[in-house]
Amino acid sequence: MKTVNIHDAKTHLSRLVHEEFIIAKAGKPVARVIPITEPPQNRRLGFLRSVPPVPDDFDDMFAEQIEAGFTGSET
User: Fold this and answer.
1) In order along the chain (75 residues), what is the average pLDDT of each group of 10 residues?
2) How many CB atoms neighbour CB 22 within 10 A?
3) How many CA atoms lie within 13 A of 40 on its CB side?
4) Which CATH number fits domain 1-35: 3.40.1620, 3.30.70, 3.90.1420, 2.60.120?
5) What are phi and psi of 22, to 5 degrees?
6) What is the predicted pLDDT for the residue at 75?
7) Where are the domains of the chain?
8) Which helix (H) or strand (E) holds 22?
9) pTM score of the predicted model
10) 49: region left, alpha or beta (phi > 0 left; psi from -120 to 50 alpha)
């Protein structure tokens, strides 16, 4: 793989971006640049494939426990 120093990478970036190369600083590799071969997909995998059912009494669920928590009484 081709190694390029930082100055040359900045100077010739438009020519270099089409190939894979390593950027080095003082002879030590600091970054690897690779071209993107396929466009990224804007898809959220598995997000809401199926909507879970909502119970009919959803608004009243645990109402007694919630009220007991505010009033300090036990049920």
Assistant:
1) 94 93 95 86 72 86 90 75
2) 14
3) 4
4) 3.40.1620
5) -110, 135
6) 55
7) 1-35
8) strand 21-25
9) 0.49
10) alpha
